[in-house]
Amino acid sequence: MATRIPIVGGNWKMNTNRASAVALARAVSSAVGGLGGIEVVLFPPFPYLLEVGKAIEGSRLALGAQDVHCEPDGAFTGEVSASMLRDCGCAWTLIGHSERRHVIGEGDDLVNRKVLAALGAGLNVILCVGETRGQREAGQTDAVNQQQLTSGLHGVTREQMRRVVIAYEPVWAIGTGLTATPEDAQAAHAAIRGTLGRLFDSATAGGARIQYGGSMKPGNAAGLMRMPDIDGGLIGGASLNADDFGAIVQAAAHAG
Ligand code: PGA
Questions:
Q1: Summary mean pLDDT of the chain
Q2: Which of 97, 99, 106, 131 is catalytic?
Q3: Of 39, 99, 106, 169, which residue is the catalytic one?
Q4: pLDDT of 221 over the 90 cut
Q5: Is the pLDDT at 1 greater than 50, yes or no?
Q6: What is the whole-number distance in angstroms between the Cα of residue 74 and the centre of ligand 1?
Q7: pTM higher than 0.90
Q8: Which residue among 27, 44, 115, 165 is least enclosed by CB atoms within 10 Å?
């Protein structure tokens, strides 16, 4: 079986200010600095990327953006390209977060174009997928994830898949305090890995890292991370507190 290095992301969303972003980055850096065998990525708001990047320079933390546009440059008011993000020190970008799919209205085609643009420009991608509460209650969880993966990863090569992480984030668990049970999350992750096997091959699927996201906290992280197909977490609310985020990173580093 492939050995997968766990990866934990802190998605700060539209929170912090210039000073608190830098302070949080420094605090996270000292909280997780001594840990090995884990990747940690911070996703601050766009305006703070450069300063957070400076604050974590030389640390084991990587920098990521919360979104990216699909075109390389041009008349796209308000958008930010993959090469701009690279220029600002980003190694990673989130794509297809449920707040962008369901609040901003991004569709599968746009998500796919963003994935291809980001990978083409050398960024690593965390592609977010997940079902709504209604879809889960209708028994459509695996079908929704399969559809979002199939369209989101259309045209991605096996080689490029090494730079893609999947974040399974049930929409009903994000920011709500509700978390999938470890067993439910594991079942969804195993199905996602099965889909990756069909879309690519079993070696690619076995090597792909799949994060869980949705109200992950220090109290529930270890139980989730222990599951065989859960390879880390994408953390929203709890990533704004360095102690909580540090505890989750520790749980991921010690799982498995
Ligand atoms: P949450 O957010 O941890 O606040 O639920 C997770 C996410 O949206 O990535």
A1: 96
A2: 97
A3: 169
A4: yes
A5: no
A6: 32
A7: yes
A8: 27
pLDDT score at 34: 84
As a whole number of angstroms, the distance between CA 30 and CA 24 comes to 10
Q: Are 224 and 203 in contact (CB under 8 A)?
A: no
Q: How far is Cα 234 from Cα 65, in angstroms, rounded to an integer?
A: 13
CA 237 to ligand 1 centroid distance, Å: 6
Are 161 and 204 contacting, i.e. CB atoms less than 8 angstroms apart?
A: yes
pLDDT tens profile 53-103: 999 999 999 999 999 999 999 999 999 999 999 999 999 999 999 999 999
- CA-173 nearest atom, ligand 1: 5
Q: Which pLDDT belongs to residue 256? A: 59
Question: Which atom belonging to ligand 1 lies closest to the Cα atom of 98?
Answer: 8
Q: What is the mean pLDDT of residues 135-139?
A: 95
CB burial of 136-167 (b: ≥16 within 10 Å; e: otherwise) equals beeeebbebbbebbeebbeebeeebbeebbbb
For the CA of 238, the closest atom of ligand 1 is: 3
Ligand 1 centroid to Cα of residue 128, in Å, is 11
Rounded Cα distance, 245 and 217, in Å: 8
45 CA from centroid of ligand 1 (Å)? 15
Query: What domains sit in the chain, N to C, each tagged with a CATH number?
Result: 7-254 (3.20.20.70)
Residue 97 is a catalytic residue: yes
